[in-house]
Amino acid sequence: MPRSPLLHRFRRVTVDALAAGGRWMLVLLVAAAPLAAGAESLGFEDSVKEAAANNADLRTARANLAAAGYNVSAAYAGYFPQASAGLSYSHSTGSAVTTTGTSAGSVIVTGTSDTYSASVSVNQNLFAGFQDSARIDQGDANRVAAEASYAVTRASVSQALKVAFANLKYAQDSVALADSIVHRLEENVRLVGLRFDSGGENKGSLLLTQASLAQARLGRLQAGQAVTTAQASLAQALGRSDAHGIEIRGEVPTRLPELAPDFGALTRQAPQYQLAVATERAAAAGITLARSAYYPSLNLTGSVGRVGSDWFPEDSHRAVGVNVSVPIFSGGRDYYAVRSATASFDAAGADKESVERQTRVALEQAYSGYVQAVEGVKVAQAFVDAAQTRAEIARAQYNNGLLTFNDWKLIEDDLTQRQTNYLLSQRDRVSAEAAWEQAQGKGVMP
């Protein structure tokens, strides 16, 4: 396949940069690489907005949070009167006593009769064994738990997006680096071939250089296939079903780690811990709710209606009453319900303690990995600078016959490895920061 003038100039710049040294060679590789035909260029801020709108996990968490809020509103219904209206019609023959409706009395029917009734009833609970307040407390605790769960999901999606974005950038940069390595090894094959033709090098050195070139071309193939896999991961985080054609631009914004974070405060603020606290609170309300079955229930009722043999009935009736219900025996159901609720509360308390410890450990581990990854990028950059300088000197020495092939190849291989390690350190630095944010329940999702 013929090379385009742009690609040829890009590769020529790569070789010249290798010869001249300097820390910005990898930046030139990425900046000079053209976008694939038909590819969609996606920046990080664009990906954040898309994931916030389309990610399935986020949509599920938002819906659960909304449902929990509605349940809190529904829990207040116990404090309000309950009203209902009813209409009835009956046709009777013979002699019978017919009940015409709730609190409407009865009518003695002789022969054939039609009876109509219409009524409105109101029931106001005055005391229900504290179950109404318990339902509100439980609903509010579940809402707080849903908020914490949403925060956990949001942090998880943020972490997945950052990692997927960094992985695709790493894959794209690896393709550019693989291209430069292939071209450099092509130059090496040409150089060793010339020395072999002139009798200054042995055939084994030429064959080894050719084998290294074949291996580099295989690496280029693998790098290209890794792009497809990274695109699929990013598409999943974005909420897309089709990953084809995604090509990212720019980088994930990063920050330096803060010094001496307060892990105790961060643990208590983490949504994982807040979720456990809310679960314990809901379990406590469950005990009150279960115990409400031991208390009497007091209700005030009233009804207004009409009854008669014609529609609309003309005879009116009114009724007001107070109802007290005292539980005596339920076959052990209420007793075991309280025992079950108490056990659930104990389990929630133990789980809260476990979550607190796990969150503390996760925070300390994530912070440690974050700090090390930041320093790892600096170390990897220093090795790249050193390897480029060594490669520049070694190439000149080999050309002048002052360096053996084996020593020169070791330096060339070290340069390749250092460049690869540098790309890995950049990717790992983003992943480590994303893990630290996730451990805190934070991220870039709005």
**What level of helicity do the residues show?**
55-70%
Q: What is the distance, rounded to the nearest whole angstrom, between the alpha carbons of the first and last residues?
A: 47 Å
Shape assignment: elongated
State the secondary-structure class.
Answer: alpha+beta
How large is the share of residues in beta strands? 5-15%
Q: For the report, how would you describe the main beta sheet?
A: 4 strands, antiparallel
Query: In what order do the strands lie side by side in the largest sheet?
Result: 2-5-7-8
What Rg do the Cα atoms give? 38 Å
Q: At the first level of CATH, what is the class?
A: Mainly Alpha
- Summed over residues and divided by their number, the pLDDT gives a mean of 85
Number of helices: 10
CATH architecture: Up-down Bundle
Mind explaining what this structure looks like?
A hairpin with a 6-residue loop joins strand 7 (297-308) and strand 8. The protein has a four-stranded antiparallel beta sheet with strand order 2-5-7-8, with no helix packed on it. Strands 1-6 form a two-stranded parallel ribbon. Strands 3-4 form a two-stranded antiparallel ribbon. It starts with a helix and ends in a 6-residue tail after the last helix. With 446 residues, it is an alpha+beta fold. The protein has a single domain (5-81, 129-294, 330-440), classed as Outer membrane efflux proteins (OEP), CATH 1.20.1600.10. It is 65% helix and 14% strand. The protein has helices at 5-20, 25-32, 44-54, 56-75, 131-197, 203-238, 263-269, 271-291, 333-399, 405-440, and strands at residues 40-42, 82-92, 96-99, 106-109, 113-127, 246-248, 297-308, 315-325. Helix 9 (333-399) packs antiparallel against helix 10 (405-440). It contains ten helices and eight strands. The model is unreliable at 1-37 (pLDDT under 50).
